[in-house]
Design the sequence.
């Protein structure tokens, strides 16, 4: 590897038949992963992916599970990516600091892939484990609510109230997010109902309301324009 003879193309040519012949051979699999890690730009190929997956089966750890989350996420394997990062979080080896980081990453990943309930749940858990993620996690939770498909009755308004709650929490938790949070509140507040509209549902400004949609549930406050 140091001499550059072990280029990625050479490694693939040499080790693909060896791996295919004996994919459960720990020595072969370990050697493939080590050499490919040391070669330049050699982690975006099928052999590396197969070898890392095989190595995790032979010697699982939260680190290897997290690595497989990253690899599967890059390949667009959404279900497998979620499965591996949740395996890393559930591992007894990891601690609260690591779990909070992984939960925040899971929240971002699920949000990007339109898995609202899982994103909301992961973001909330990240905050409970490490308050350092509060600002960023609350922004995600606000975004989840502001874009949620709550299409009927009061909930079509309540999603914007809930979004406001989380943007306010984000601003309180992390001053660096204040401008973004204020901007987001300004965008959702134009969708608040008129007082006369909300009166039709026997609700009034400042009243407590529980909203559920898109796999998410939260308690918010009635707001009007």
Sequence:
């Amino acid at each position: 590897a140091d001499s550059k003879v072990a280029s990625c193309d050479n490694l693939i040519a040499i080790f693909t038949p060896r791996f295919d012949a004996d994919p459960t051979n720990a020595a072969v699999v370990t050697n493939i992963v080590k050499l490919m890690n040391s070669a330049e730009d050699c982690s975006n190929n099928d052999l590396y992916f197969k070898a890392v997956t095989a190595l995790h089966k032979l010697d699982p750890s939260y680190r290897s599970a997290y690595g497989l989350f990253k690899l599967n996420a890059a390949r667009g394997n959404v279900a497998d990516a979620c499965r591996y990062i949740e395996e890393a979080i559930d591992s007894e080896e990891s601690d609260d600091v690591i779990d909070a980081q992984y939960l925040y990453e899971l929240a971002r990943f699920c949000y990007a892939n339109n898995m609202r309930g899982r994103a909301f749940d992961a973001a909330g858990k990240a905050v409970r484990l490490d308050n350092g993620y509060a600002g960023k996690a609350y922004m995600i939770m606000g975004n989840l609510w502001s874009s949620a498909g709550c299409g009927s009755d009061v909930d079509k308004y309540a999603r914007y109230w809930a979004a406001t709650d989380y943007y306010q929490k984000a601003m309180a938790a992390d001053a660096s997010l204040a401008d973004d949070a204020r901007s987001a509140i300004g965008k959702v507040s134009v969708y608040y109902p008129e007082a006369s509209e909300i009166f039709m549902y026997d609700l009034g400004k400042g009243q407590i309301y529980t909203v559920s949609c898109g796999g998410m549930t939260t308690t918010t406050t009635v707001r009007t324009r």
